Amino acid sequence: MPYKRGERKGKLTIAELRRAVRLHNKLTKVSIPRGASYDEIIKIINDNGYNVDHANQKLVPSGKAKIEVPVPPPAKRKPKSDVDKKFDKELKELMAIADKNIEKEKKKPVGKVKDAVAKIEGKAKPKPKPNFKLKSPRKIGEVAKPTKKSAGFDMKITFKTGNLENQVRQTTKGFLKSASKDNVKLFITKIRRSLGVLNLNEKDRRELVDLSKSIIKLNRPKLASLVE
Question: Phi and psi (nearest 5°) for 60?
Answer without folding.
Answer: -115, 130
